[in-house]
Prior knowledge:
Elements: H1 3-14, E1 20-25, H2 30-42, E2 47-51, H3 67-70, E3 72-76, H4 79-88, E4 92-96, E5 103-104, E6 114-119, H5 127-132, E7 135-138, H6 150-167, H7 178-189, H8 191-199
Parallel strand pairs: 1-2, 1-6, 2-3, 4-6, 4-7, 5-7
Helix pairs in contact: 1-7, 2-6, 7-8
Amino acid sequence: MSAKRYLKVKKCIEQRQPGLTVVMEYVHKAHNLAAIARTCDAVGIGEIYATTDSDEITLTQNASSGSDRWLDVKCYKNIDQILAELRKKKFQILTAHFDNNAIDFRKIDYTVPTAIVVGQELEGLSQYVVDKADHSIIIPMYGMVQSLNVSVATAIILYEAQRQREEAGFYKKIQLTDEHINKLLFEKCYPRIAKVYREQNKNYPPLDDEGNIIS
């Protein structure tokens, strides 16, 4: 890895927004998963959540544009596990869902820890997770069509969150610990070597200022 590439990766990690995430409740279509992942990476999200019956979900579609390498997806069998983890971290839970109490997505404060829950393409979110959320949010629409593709809707909401966080200076201050940054740097710069270290239950070696492994 070149020093230029290393510094770019380092800058991206230092701008990560640990207080912003997306939860995908049984979003199955690969192109939607990939598009959501790409937007998450673009706005500085490093970790997202998904409910799935499988052990993992695949983001390796053309639409992901390589974002699957930079984004960590935490998979759970049910939504309660995800909500419990987010509540423990003091996140507000927002469901992208139309109902009589839904709020315009632009009226939400995204500078507080926020999780945006989106649902599968045909059936949307379960009523269970809607009832568990702090708010339902909607994107105002004035045409005949009353819904957007899930990846498009997610992108619109996330860029409002990015706008608010940028105005608040969140992208100019590092929000991760040095330990977390160093861990991510090694895993993202040297994924194959990192896997070997994990399998051997060893700590990662340090990196120098140009991204070289210090032996």
